[in-house]
Description:
Bound molecules: 5'-deoxyadenosine
CATH architecture of the largest domain: Alpha-Beta Horseshoe
CATH class of the largest domain: Alpha Beta
Shape: globular
Distance between the termini: 51 Å
Number of domains: 3
CATH superfamily of the largest domain: tm_1862 like domain
Largest sheet: 6 strands, parallel
Radius of gyration: 22 Å
Strand order of the largest sheet: 2-1-3-4-5-6
Amino acid sequence: xxxxxxxxxxxxxxxxxxxxxxxxxxxxxxxxxxxxxxxxxxxxxxxxxxxxxxxxxxxxxxxxxxxxxxxxxxxxxxxxxxxxxxxxxxxxxxxxxxxxxxxxxxxxxxxxxxxxxxxxxxxxxxxxxxxxxxxxxxxxxxxxxxxxxxxxxxxxxxxxxxxxxxxxxxxxxxxxxxxxxxxxxxxxxxxxxxxxxxxxxxxxxxxxxxxxxxxxxxxxxxxxxxxxxxxxxxxxxxxxxxxxxxxxxxxxxxxxxxxxxxxxxxxxxxxxxxxxxxxxxxxxxxxxxxxxxxxxxxxxxxxxxxxxxxxxxxxxxxxxxxxxxxxxxxxxxxxxxxxxxxxxxxxxxxxxxxxxxxxxxxxxxxxxxxxxxxxxxxxxxxxxxxxxxxxxxxxxxxxxxxxxxxxxxxxxxxxxxxxxxxxxxxxxxxxxxxxxxxxxxxxxxxxxxxxxxxxxxxxxxxxxxxxxxxx
Length: 471
Ligand code: 5AD
């Protein structure tokens, strides 16, 4: 009788990079003989992949970890809180078995094995600055997803004053363009139809194998060339997206790439953070409102059907009601179709620690709600314009695990739910008529199947919805 496989459950918080890291941890642990299960209950190993971009993420870790305190489980804390807190996590939660940072994930199976054998708790949080390693998709037959994340760069050299990421993900390191293109090609051959390029400032990409001229414009990166290479060398790719870009690197050459490359999504998420120059300056964002507007206006001119979403922080130190009103006016002016809104949250190590967190919690909350009201109205109005339209959908997977309907995305990243039918399934490309708009998604009827679902394509559960305002 074959030995029972040990059960592993991964709980993921935070951004797409964490989702990608979790997918890679699943691959590593499956290869090491574990069975991945959806529920924490009954799992032999639980990995909490954490986020520290706001304080709330840390609180979530503490409450999730606390629930497992007495359980006979190997508890692993991975991700940004692991990197940020390291040894300190063991002091406050000695029942944690393994603390592992984002650059040490390959060691995970060995670290878990040691813990299973009764070894002491371990902490591995070393940045691979000299010889960066990038986690890649497993493209074994049958393993390709309808949509896949591909890492382009990691770390961040910006010093936005609110942001902990440079301290949890380390300095910028880039992957050779040849490796990125090869991974995309392998995915496409495996049945993947959409690739989402990932990086903390994805559009700052520079090919580490190419020497740069000394007089290079620091805003210009080699990201546009990378997009062109992917389009040319992986012609079977249906859709190409990227996240998260920095407005500073939204240069004329990136705008031209959007004009030229049909494969690029007609939706871009471009975090602006504030509509007030005074606040942008204190945030060390390195652009003004007018510069941001100019850059995204050029992008829209290059691709008129393009929609935009953004990230906004309310209640940053020193933000007045007038500053906030400028943010609201920018949201209206640029007609973002959706946005993520956050209350400023003090983060360790960040330059903004020197500023007084002086906007009262109640005021932060009321600004967030005011932002929510404006953006929800814009989302509603945008989705309503699509009712009756014919859209092309890439089907990613069931609407929810076990659901009877399928969830797909348009080229502009709207989520559309459709009923099943012949050829409809993960990886299918279908034409649907939009019948109805919900708050953050659409419902449609499949009219025709352009590319039927392939049995070798796995459903993709992105676990991250269309941007919404969150408290
Ligand atoms: N407080 C609130 N929001 C933050 N973000 C990053 N750091 C903080 C913070 N300290 C938001 C930004 C960023 C998104 C991922 O999280 O809007 O774009």
